[in-house]
Each structure stands twice: as C-alpha cells, then as structure tokens.
Amino acid sequence: MSERTIGQLVADATRDISELARHEVALAKAELRNDAKQAGVGAGMFGGAAFFGLMAFILLLFAAAYGLHEGAGWPVWLSFLTVAVVLLLLAAVMGLVGRSRVSKVKPPERAIATTKASLEAAKGKAVPVGGAASGASS
After folding, report:
1. Are 131 and 117 in contact (CB under 8 A)?
2. How many angstroms separate the CA atoms of 18 and 22, rounded?
3. What is the pLDDT of residue 138?
4. Cα–Cα separations (whole angstroms), residue 120 to 23, 54, 92
5. pLDDT in tens, 111-133
6. DSSP codes, 52-109
7. Planar angle of CA 33, 39, 41, nearest 5 degrees
8. Please, what is the average pLDDT of the chain?
9. Calpha distance 108→131 (Å, rounded)
C-alpha cells in the first residue's frame, strides 16, 4: 500500500464533504416535499370545513327567519329583513372595531432606524441608532 499525499487527502475530504452536502440537501428536499404535501392536505381540509361551516350558517339564518315567521307570527319578508338588519349591525360593529385596531398599528420604527443606520454605515457614514452612540459592532 502506498501512502497518499496531502493533496489526495484534501481532494478526498473535499469530495466527501461535497457528497455529504448533496445527500443532506436531498434529504431536506424529501422531508420538505412530504411536509408540503401534508400541509396542502391540511389546508384543503380547512377549506372544506370553512365551506361547510358557511353553508350551515346560511341554513341557520334561514331557520332564524322562518322561526320569527312561525313563532312571532311576523310576515316572511319582515322576518328575513330583521335577520338581515341584525347581520348588517354585526358587520358594522366588527368593521368599526377592526378599523380601530388597525389604526393602532405603528410602523416598525426600530427596524427602519437600524436599516437607515446600516445604509449609512455602508456608505461610510457612522450614524448612532436610537440616539445612543454606536460602539464597535459585530
């Protein structure tokens, strides 16, 4: 058996590392493919559940309208109008609450400041972030 040179050993190590990396990437692809398939099936199930939930909700609204018609003796048109008005009131309240919540969202000030500082640093200008003097950064 002949001794191998350092160059051969380095070449073998490089080849082995490259092969190992290829196998790791292939394994990651296989795992992600399976996970993506499972996520897709799960998302489809959520979509189906939402569809059937919506259909049940519509039927419940019809039942409420006919319940008002039969139970309170209201005309059919008045029963359906009452259910529609209640739904519109719920929609208005939810819309107003949603608008007030969205209006409270502020821009990401720290991220903007650090991005501006990074851009200035890349241009060669030192800018302190958040008013504090910047020391040595990593």
Report:
1. no
2. 6
3. 45
4. 42, 52, 46
5. 888 888 888 877 776 555 555 54
6. HHHHHHHHHHHHHHHHHHHHH---HHHHHHHHHHHHHHHHHHHHHHHHHHHHT----H
7. 105
8. 88
9. 16
